[in-house]
Amino acid sequence: PSEATSSSTDPDALATIDAAWQNDPRWQAAERQLQVAELLLRERPRVPGDQWTAAADSLASAAEALAAYCPLKLNNAEFCRAVQSYGVTEPFAGREFRPGQEVLLYVELQHFETQPTSAGHETEFRATYRVADANERIVSEHPLPIDRQTSRNRRHDYFIAYRLRLPNSLPNGAYHLLLSIDDVKGRKSATTRLAFELR
Hints:
The protein is of the alpha+beta class. The chain has 2 domains: 59 residues; 126 residues, Immunoglobulins (Immunoglobulin-like, Sandwich). It is 24% helix and 44% strand. The strands form 2 sheets. Strands 3, 5, 6, 7, 9 and 10 form a 6-stranded mixed sheet that branches. The chain has a 4-stranded antiparallel sheet with strand order 2-1-4-8, with no helix packed on it. A hairpin with a 5-residue loop joins strand 6 and strand 7. Helix 2 runs antiparallel to helix 3. It is elongated.
């Protein structure tokens, strides 16, 4: 489990950050969308059904704009035999593998950035995985293929399935795989870890 840390916050620094946000078009767009949704919720006894749809759309647009300020999140990482689509996977029954065994490493991404281009919305992720032993010592490290995609519409359900071969030079025992992904467009990164054993 991760440990939270606390530190004192400089009020002047917070004021500077707040001023920067107020001038950011993405923050301004999110604020407008939230105001629309708030107005509709306040007037809910007199709001027809189609305006509830508008409120839901406004909240979705605000969440999309606010995602730029959120840390990248890696969800539902798992070792899989097969991956069909977002959320449709065939995980291994357990996490005991042979040295050198090939697996699919599935992970879902949240709060990532897209870059509008003439061809559509572009995403780009660079990743590495490291293997740590029971003493948290890194015993293996490998880069993973760059994931770069362009879609006509902005992506919401985003996953990556990395095909990798577990190290064949390690002795049997308990390990952790640490997957680190850099969101190139959003200039942010995240790491998730999965326990496994070599037998």
